[in-house]
Design the sequence.
């Protein structure tokens, strides 16, 4: 990476990449990059893992509004998210849709919902389903699963 010495570091960044390069690349201020490494996809998700994940859903449910125009819909969406994640084949499009709903309607919960989705246990569930589902998950959530 090269920058003009007269510029302040936050004013300008010039990047030159050449050769045979692969992997993620991020430039700019205030970026957040997440990478999920699921390890060996042949490692089964245990009942304790699922119980732990469900406990995380319970903690988030306790934080959701109990009254107001979006309270019931938020709980229904969280239930749908839990079902989409723990289904025999996780439903990535539902995960994405629900995360976006929270982003639009209750943005203060977007981080918590995203944290549930990119949880290492979810990564294992998606990696175990393999193939196109892993690619879809990577595309929607910008994470890399090692399957």
Sequence:
């Amino acid at each position: 990476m090269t920058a003009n010495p007269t510029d302040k570091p936050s004013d300008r960044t010039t990047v030159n990449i050449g050769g045979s390069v692969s992997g993620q690349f991020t430039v700019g201020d205030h970026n957040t990059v997440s990478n999920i490494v699921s390890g060996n996809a042949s490692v089964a998700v245990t009942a304790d893992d699922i119980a732990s994940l469900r406990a995380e859903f319970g903690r988030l449910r306790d934080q959701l509004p109990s009254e107001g125009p979006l309270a019931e819909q938020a709980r229904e969406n969280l239930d749908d998210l839990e079902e989409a994640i723990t289904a025999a084949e996780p439903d990535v499009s539902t995960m994405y849709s629900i995360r976006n709903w929270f982003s639009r309607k209750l943005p203060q919960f977007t981080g918590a919902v995203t944290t549930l989705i990119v949880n290492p246990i979810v990564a294992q569930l998606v990696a175990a389903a393999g193939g196109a589902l892993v690619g879809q998950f990577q595309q929607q959530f910008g994470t890399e699963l090692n399957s």
Observations:
- The two ends are 31 Å apart (CA to CA).
- The CA atoms of residues 41 and 147 lie 5 Å apart.
- Confidence is low (pLDDT under 50) at residues 36-41.
